[in-house]
TrEMBL record:
Protein's name according to its UniProt entry: DUF7086 domain-containing protein
Domain DUF7086: 30-135
PANTHER family: EXPRESSED PROTEIN (PTHR34272)
Alphabetized Pfam families for the sequence: DUF7086
Length: 136
């Protein structure tokens, strides 16, 4: 793989080990697994009690879950996100017990958003339209 060129206008420093030095892009699944990156972490914050926790997703298991979902739902998607992705069901807070409360912590700068964590957690619907457009 060629070394990233910091003078390239699309170059950004990789904010996570699974991201590439280009905006909103990640390494391939094969590359990540072969280099030992099998856990993707991110943070969730409770909307009620404001506690923040780190959550880890098993890359292989979560990727297969998302892939199966997309394969099953694709004929009904019509180039649109399914409703379950647009309004994701959020985890219950273990601290206060409030249901549907743990929102992902999304970096203020779009280039630092943990896209793979959001995809694997099926929480891309927590992003604004401007954030999603950055990814496309």
């Amino acid at each position: 793989m060629a070394q990233p060129d910091p003078s390239d206008p699309d170059y950004i420093p990789s904010p996570y080990p699974w991201s590439r030095p280009r905006r909103a892009s990640v390494h391939t699944l094969h590359h990540l697994l072969s280099s030992g990156c099998d856990t993707i972490t991110g943070h969730l914050r409770c909307k009620r009690c404001d506690v923040t926790v780190e959550v880890a997703h098993d890359l292989r298991d979560r990727f297969m879950e998302v892939a199966r979902f997309v394969a099953a739902e694709r004929p009904r998607m019509h180039d649109r996100a399914p409703p379950v992705w647009m309004k994701p069901r959020l985890p219950t807070c273990q601290n206060c017990g409030y249901a549907n409360a743990m929102k992902p912590v999304i970096a203020p700068k779009k280039r630092n958003i943990n896209w793979l964590f959001l995809l694997l957690g099926q929480m891309l619907g927590c992003c604004s339209l401007a954030q999603l457009k950055y990814f496309s």
